[in-house]
Amino acid sequence: MKHVNNQSINMSQSEKILNSAFKCIATKGYANVSLRDIADEAGVVLSQLNYYYKNKEGLFTEVVKMLSLKYLNEIEDTLKNGKSKSEKISSLIKYFQQMLNKNPELFKIFYDMTSMALWSTYLKDLLNDLFNKLTFLIEKYVINTDHYKEKFKEYSSSALSRMILGTLFGTSVQVILADSEKKDIAESLGVLRAVFS
């Protein structure tokens, strides 16, 4: 019994550190955050971060895994909404618009980890896996219909799905970077509705 209690305390500490890392990276960016910052935010000693995650890259890798799972689950749940394919694409666009308004930190970390993946083989593999799974979800719930196959017959469903994903993320980064035109840029996501209606 005592062993189980220690294990649940360890899991709790590990999750606390992970959530603190997410918060710190979202606020300052990966390059500007030290392990000391994360330990202070989590209210733990620095050695606990090393115990659970070995180093900053190990911790960041776990943040990437956590975010990937969050993105995949939320986007699949979003794509399951709506009866028609146009309702599904509308739900996906609405999800991105709401995330940009309510939780832009999630996008900031995503873009931060994308730039890191250019230099880290392991992060590159994780991010490629995320992109492939997101592409598959869009293909499965939106693109794979006779209507779209006929309308865009010269393109593969995978290519169309990647175009949608690229448009959503690319436009989202413009919203995050913009100061005065955020609403206008965020509304440009709606153009996808017109293309796929």
TrEMBL record:
Gene3D superfamilies: Tetracycline Repressor, domain 2. Pfam families: TetR_N. It comes from the Bacteria. Keywords: DNA-binding. Coiled coil: none annotated. PROSITE patterns: HTH_TETR_2. InterPro entries: Homeodomain-like_sf, HTH-type_Tx_Regulator, HTH_TetR. GO terms for molecular function: DNA binding. Residues 34-53 bind DNA. Residues 11-71 form the HTH tetR-type domain. The keyword DNA-binding applies. PANTHER family: ACREF/ENVCD OPERON REPRESSOR-RELATED, ACREF_ENVCD OPERON REPRESSOR-RELATED. This is Transcriptional regulator, TetR family.
